[in-house]
Amino acid sequence: MRLWxxxxxxxxxxxxxxxxxxxxxxxxVEREIxxxxxxxxxxxxxxxxxxxxxxxxxxxxxxxDALNAAIxxxxxxxxxxxxxxxxxxxxxxxxxxxxxxNLTEEGMCSIVRAFDEAGQLLxxx
Length: 125
Fold this sequence. Notes:
Elements: H1 2-10, H2 12-35, E1 39-46, E2 49-54, H3 61-77, E3 84-88, E4 91-97, H4 105-124
Antiparallel strand pairs: 1-2, 2-4, 3-4
């Protein structure tokens, strides 16, 4: 019933545009993460989801797992992004679902910069 009501109110074209926009935002995240040193794409953008990891040199896997979990927690606490962690290939990674019809490409770039700032800040601690 909820899906039917949503389709009736918004229409297929609007919902399709929102989904396409989310797919494009995930590709923006991937592109911007690839530009940053110390960051790795773990799972490329697919269906509006991308997984990435902060991996500065000289840290153990346990330290990197803790650092990525701390970055995710900081982004939530600071109300910047709700990108949670998951485990892929035995490593803690940050998983972002980019479905947000109101977020612009520049807004997403700003969020990626905030991830990097949080990583650098936590690395310095």
